What does this fold into?
Amino acid sequence: IDRELIAQTILDGLAPVIHGPIQTTSWAFTDSVTHYAYDPPRARELLDEAGWRDRDADGIRDRDGSPLAFTLITQAGFTIRENVAQTIQRQLRDVGIDMHVQLIDGTAISTFWFEGRFDALLHWWHMPADPEMTLFFAGDRVPPAGRNINYFADAHLTTLLYASDRTVDRQERRRLLHEAQRVIADLLPEIPLYNVTRLDVVPSQAIPLLLIISILIFALIHAAPGGPLEMFLANPNVRPEDIERLRAALGLDRPLSVQYLSWLRGFVTGEWGYSFTDGRPVSDRLLERLPATLELLGSAILVAASVALPLGVFGAVRRRTWIDRATTLVSFAGISLPIFWFGLVLQLIFAVALGWLPSSGRTSFGDGTVLDRLRHVILPAIMLAAVHAAVWSRFLRSSMATALHERHRDHA
It folds into this structure.
């Protein structure tokens, strides 16, 4: 497997290749382990020596009438992991190994892991600053006792890991974990690929991207019909010379590059200009509307959390029952809802047909009590909360189901 190619092309160089289970920034990391180079000719030789040959010239090796084939599972919906799996598939095919890729929904993949229902899997974890290698590699920590989903057991490795857990001497623990990493690299219960540790470079790379996006949007706005003077162009009482004076006053007669740089400078410094409708500073108008925005956002989050929490908990606790299937159905329905359509339906039913709630606005004319504000915020809050509640309940259900499969330990 060409891990360097994966790290440089799919991950844009943001994730260095690793040769063990501990990230390079950890105090327990060591690089004094066996490194396996990308060497397809040597891989073919090893397969030939093991008796795996392409006897029927179909491009796939076989032995005793059985093809060298297996299925790799990984979570669906993650483009990077799907691309990594497909890249590995092509690289193995080059040496005569037929690997199939099966994408599993995130709500179900933990079941495959902890029940051992796979030939191979592309998985991931976050190793904390104080490595918990025992949980992942000790021979007696296969599910449901732990997260050794490689189902791998080696007595010497297990002894090293438990000894590292018992000692309070930092240097001795580092020595034991270094030795454990060397054992893992030699026995290779899994193939480490990459470690995302260089996320600090993302902001610096994002700045040029944001600049390019702003330039494109700026150009599209100027290329579109109309503009800030459109209202005056349609008025027969406004003379052409008045239009030109307005254009000069607003700086619209300058080259586009100058206009863009002027806008960018104002955006960065907080000088966002004045409204075309009433001449007031844009920042003042935004601040005026901030309380309403926060009010709606807070209400939507409260509604989403109130719905997501019971759905996720019941789905995880009552897995594979009608309750779990019902909560899953409700969640997927919420994820699939077009928000604009759902908002119109809520208005038609509760505002137009039943007349229970107002269809728009923040307060009624001449009113402004807490109850009146609450009545106005109900429909938009429900509309915004629908999708978030559905997504959060799925995450909560998946995380809680995974946690329920683990056996937790207390440390004195």
Observations:
- The first helix runs from residue 3 to 10.
- The first strand starts at residue 62 and ends at 63.
- DSSP finds 15 helices and five strands in the chain.
- Residues 198-202, 407-412 have pLDDT under 50 and may be disordered.
